[in-house]
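Q: Convert this sequence to structure tokens.
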Amino acid sequence: MIGRDCSRCVLAFFIITLLCAQFFLWGAPSAAHSGSGGMVLASLWGSDSKSAPDFELQDLNGSSVRLSSFKGKKPVLIYFWATWCPYCITVKPAIADLRKEIAPSELEILSVNVGGGDSLERVKRYQERNPAPYAVVYDGEGKVSRSYQVQGIPLFVLVDKEGKVIYRGNDLPKDTKKLLRSK
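A:
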């Protein structure tokens, strides 16, 4: 009898978690199109040229990765994700294709695991089974996710060479090369 009640509790918890995740994913702010066909940032950020908050996180090998180390050198695409997010997993091949299209010398891709619901060990196991051709860092305390006001994942933030946010949205930018050339 106790085992049956426990199973129901686990099932209820799982369903509630999925419903909450769906709410945050569908209710998240994303970029809106301007009349000129370019992207403007969501009103949450208030401007289309806000400086990206700097951060320093550890990659899965324990090395430090600091956003500001790329300033003046190359743009950075920041991809917020989690192992439990089906939309995040679905978009990984498109990010890998983007890596093939744009060389690491022209664009840094930082994959930031938001930490919520993922342990570092779980992320490492996931990456061993599903290697990525870009840096993966872990935001275990959620400080970076909070500073970027991540309300739904996946979230993509494109930062230009000067450290300004030029795109923010829940979809991968359609033409990243063109977006980078326009800035």
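The chain has one domain: 2-181.
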